[in-house]
TrEMBL record, chain A:
Keyword Phosphoprotein: yes
Protein name according to UniProt: Chemotaxis protein CheA
UniProt KW keywords: ATP-binding, Chemotaxis, Kinase, Nucleotide-binding, Phosphoprotein, Transferase, Two-component regulatory system
Catalytic reaction(s) noted: ATP + protein L-histidine = ADP + protein N-phospho-L-histidine
CheW-like domain: residues covered: 554-690
EC annotation from Swiss-Prot or TrEMBL: 2.7.13.3
Enzyme class: transferase
Pfam families according to UniProt: CheW (PF01584), H-kinase_dim (PF02895), HATPase_c (PF02518), Hpt (PF01627)
Biological source species: Roseinatronobacter bogoriensis subsp. barguzinensis
TrEMBL record, chain B:
Leader sequence segment: none
Organism lineage string: Bacteria, Pseudomonadati, Pseudomonadota, Alphaproteobacteria, Rhodobacterales
Domain CheW-like: 12-153
Matching SUPFAM superfamilies: CheW-like
Protein name in the entry: Chemotaxis protein CheW
Coiled coil feature spans: none
A GO BP annotation: chemotaxis
Parts of the chain that traverse the membrane: none
CC per GO annotation: cytosol
Source organism, top-level taxon: Bacteria
Length: 703, 156
């Protein structure tokens, strides 16, 4: 049973890739940039899912995939135009297929809501074509009914089969294939040696044989094609139906049609009459995908991959974390032993450090995944959101090859989903307003990603009306989130959107506007060590910018001393460090202290006090101030006892065995084997402000 | 091995006995991963007083709980003679600070008595049963589940 589970898991993993290629292919068709190969690729992917599903007895999946495949086949054989309506059905079918796959995976029997409707729509597409077919019954067209797998069964097939070198190389035997065909019915086999050169010019690199096989059978074309399933990408194959009429007076017709120059030599024991269907008047012909395949094959070969379970990579990453710690320990031991100045020791340590860094980078590269997977899903989210709101929206994705850590890819899905929905629902105006403002009716949402100065930046941009600041302000005031009349800059007003309990839409739609929108996004991004920023131009649109660290495993930190405890402050937040002089420190009231820095007064926060390590703030002269900035550009100066190092630290979860600690984002292990806590500067600043409601707004809103 | 199986069938368990403020306690041996000597911890801010902080256990961050403080005997002054019992409960690893580990004892199910109803003692709720021995010794069985700090799961 566990073997079977393993296979099933492999099948589902494969399904994910196939579904992705279906979705990508359909979009390419949408854009009109596609070639026939794209259609083939989509068809093949759906076909593979169907095949796999059939092997595991997933009936529902098979049925749907089959219908989908049939409709796609019409597109493939040019019997159906890729009109927007048709493509919409295909897109939704692809979504539904994905749902069916995931429901089969969870085996929870959940149904895709629109499945039956979709089946009906697909039927309509297929049916329409069949009707059209009926009208032009006598005109020979290139429509293949073979794949319908049921109603239309030909009397037989003519199979032209020319193996490529690869077929022989991979150990396939044409003879075995022909024997397999014989099992389906009576065969007549001709070998065509036309292209075989004279012996002196012959090379084994150039197999020039081809076969023409006439097969009399009641099997469907799919069954016939199945014989060649494993070789279809290394041979030229054409399967065409035998004209039923021609078969009746086969002998005569064939006799007449023999092309004397064709020089067909019969092989095998099937010494039947010579058949040449070149002249057969209406043999519908379908090129199998095999022909279009070679270029794609080379693509695939260029990026050879292996599947490795994530556990193994995680384990490797953990061990590298240990290596980094051990290396720090060694450095410390060397130092205490007084060897730190020995050139040989220093050289060896440097070498070790470099190697550890390289290994860490390589493993991070293994864990890195292109954002494509996430972006891909957003197309669907957008489609559903557009449908729900009745707006016309187009999603443009840029930089989907940008790579981020695997865990981050997974955890980005929810926030991005929220943001896309938000942009469709709140960001874009309805078609009428757009028209009035001289914009194209169809709204555009751009999802872009790029690496920027050691971080990943993701942007969601809409070309909507921008943020309606007076309205936002009004809502915030109504909800008591901000004091009426408070002086807020436009940036501050924009930031109100991130407040918990804020919902700007008057009417709560099914899509968004439950007031759990953007503050959740913000929290989730912050949990990933990222930041969210917002910028908006009235009438032009809104941009949400997310910046994320490259990895969740390692962080560049500043080691600080607080009483007898060592703590780590993420370097990304640090702006500058300074020893305060009396002139720049100002006292406000009894306990308040502020630092004049870069022309602004910023609060001084004693970290020892905020962590409860001491009761009263330490003497400023004894300490060091670190100016930090949060993603809202809110600045503060942290007072610490000393700064003694800056280094890479491995992030260890604190929540796993204990839970969350206010002001602490995680823990790490230092060179001496002790644990140090990693400070969350944002939370410290938040928590040290006294009045939560009002001050929090001001804090968040300082943009 | 065989003895263990026989013991299990007979309704017998092994437990680690340890001392705290001159009282004998025990914890099911199946929950115990290892026993270490005390080493200084990293203090967790805003933690209850019985949470001594965290230590590094081969790369894992492990919380150390001062059993003495948790059971109401007051904070212990750990020395190098103190021990930390590393236990695992439902996937969470926790270190328990105790005075010393005294014994490994075999206890049978029928020797476990309910805790006498002495209300309002903090130790009461962390003890799941009393085990009496023929020589008059009494072991208090620790309920690890009750012992673990309840940490509010804020945020994600």
């Amino acid at each position: 049973m566990s073997d079977m589970d393993e296979f099933l898991e492999m099948f589902f993993a494969e399904c994910d890739e196939l579904l992705e290629s279906v979705a990508t292919g359909l979009r390419q068709i949408d854009e009109g940039t596609c070639e026939m190969e794209t259609v083939h690729a989509v068809f093949r992917a759906v076909h593979s899912i169907k095949g796999g599903a059939a092997a595991f007895g997933l009936g529902e999946l098979v049925d749907f995939a089959h219908k989908f495949e049939t409709a796609l086949d019409l597109l493939r054989s040019d019997a159906l135009d890729a009109t927007p309506q048709v493509m919409s059905v295909f897109h939704r079918s692809s979504d539904c297929l994905a749902d069916l796959v995931s429901s089969a995976r969870l085996s929870d029997g959940s149904e895709h809501a629109g499945k039956d409707d979709l089946l009906a729509e697909l039927d309509a597409l297929i049916g329409r074509e069949e009707e059209v077919e009926g009208e032009i019954e006598f005109v020979p067209t290139a429509i293949d009914f073979g794949d319908f797998g049921g109603p239309v069964v030909a009397e037989g097939y003519i199979i032209e089969f020319e193996p490529d070198l690869d077929l022989y190389r991979s150990g396939n035997d044409p003879c075995a294939l022909i024997r397999a065909l014989e099992k389906l019915g009576r065969t007549e086999v001709r070998i065509n040696t036309d292209k075989v050169p004279v012996l002196s010019e012959w090379s084994k690199e150039n197999p020039a044989l081809n076969w023409e096989i006439t097969l009399y059978t009641d099997a469907t074309e799919a069954e016939v094609a199945a014989v060649f399933e494993f070789v279809e990408d290394c041979c030229k194959l054409s399967i065409s139906q035998l004209e039923p009429l021609a078969e009746v007076d086969l002998g005569e017709a064939v006799e007449e049609q023999i092309d004397p120059e064709a020089e067909m030599i019969p092989v095998g024991e099937n010494d039947g009459p010579l058949v040449d269907n070149q002249g057969a008047p209406s043999a519908p012909r379908l090129e199998t995908p095999a022909d279009g395949r070679p270029p794609k094959q080379t693509d695939a070969a260029a990026t050879a991959t292996i599947r490795v379970s994530l556990d193994r990579v995680d384990k490797l990453m953990n061990m590298i974390g240990e290596l980094v710690i051990k290396e720090a320990m060694l450095t410390q031991v060397v130092q205490t032993a007084g060897l730190a100045t020995e050139p040989e020791v220093v050289g060896a340590l440097d070498g070790l450090r470099q190697l550890a860094g390289d290994i860490q980078e390589s493993v991070m590269a293994i864990r890195a995944q292109p954002l494509k997977q996430v972006f891909q899903r957003m197309h669907r989210i957008l489609r559903e959101a557009a449908e729900a709101t009745g707006k016309q929206v187009r999603l443009v994705t840029v930089g989907e090859q940008t790579e981020v850590d695997k865990t981050m890819v997974e955890r980005l899905i929810d926030p991005l989903t929220h943001m896309i929905r938000n942009s469709v629902d709140h960001g874009l105006e309805d078609a009428l307003t757009r028209q009035r403002n001289g914009k194209p009716q169809e709204g555009t949402i751009t999802l872009s990603a790029a690496h920027k100065s050691g971080r990943v930046q993701i942007e969601v941009t809409d070309d909507g009306g921008g943020i309606d600041r007076p309205k936002i302000r009004q809502i915030a005031e109504d909800k008591g989130l901000v004091a009426p009349g408070a002086a807020l800059t436009p940036g501050e007003v924009d930031s109100l959107l991130f407040l918990p309990g804020f919902s700007s839409k008057d009417a709560v739609s099914a899509l968004s506007g439950r007031g759990v929108g953007l503050d959740v996004v913000r929290r989730e991004i912050m949990a990933l060590g990222g930041r969210v920023m917002i910028s908006s131009v009235e009438g032009k649109g809104t941009t949400f910018t997310i910046t994320l660290p490259l990895t969740l495993a390692v962080l560049e930190g500043m080691l600080i001393q607080l009483n007898d405890q060592t703590m780590v402050l993420p370097i990304t937040a640090v702006q500058e460090t300074l020893r305060p002089d009396q002139a720049s420190v100002h006292y406000i009231g009894s306990g308040g202290r502020a630092l004049a820095n870069r022309g602004k007064l910023i609060p001084i926060i004693d970290l020892g006090c905020s962590f409860g390590l001491r009761d009263a703030p330490g003497n400023l002269e004894d300490g060091v101030l670190i100016v930090v900035e949060t993603d809202n550009h809110k600045r503060a100066a942290f007072q610490v006892d000393a700064i003694f190092d800056q280094r890479q630290v491995v992030i260890k979860s604190l929540e796993e065995n204990y839970g969350r600690v206010a002001g602490v984002s995680a823990a790490t292990i230092l060179g001496d084997g002790k644990i140090a806590l990693i400070i969350d500067p944002e939370e410290i600043i938040m928590s040290t402000t006294s009045e939560p409601a009002r001050d929090r707004v001001a804090l968040i809103a300082v943009g | 091995m065989l003895q263990t199986i026989i013991d299990n069938v007979m309704g017998k368990h092994e437990a680690i006995a340890f001392k705290l403020a001159d009282q004998d306690f025990c914890i099911d041996i199946g929950l115990v991963r290892e026993i270490r000597g005390w080493s200084p911890t990293t203090v967790l801010p805003h933690a209850p007083d019985y949470v001594r902080g965290v230590i590094n256990l081969r790369g894992a961050v492990v919380t150390v709980i001062d059993l003495s403080a948790r059971l109401g005997f007051g904070l212990s002054e750990p020395t190098h003679r103190h021990v930390v019992i590393i236990a695992m409960y439902e996937g969470r690893i926790v270190g328990l600070l105790a005075d010393l580990v005294s014994d490994i004892v075999t206890i049978s199910d029928d020797s476990i008595q309910a805790v006498p109803d002495i209300a309002s003692d903090p130790a009461h709720e962390f003890i799941s049963g009393m085990i009496t021995f023929e020589d008059g010794r009494i072991l208090r069985k620790i309920d690890l589940k009750q012992l673990l700090p309840d940490v509010p799961q804020t945020g994600g």
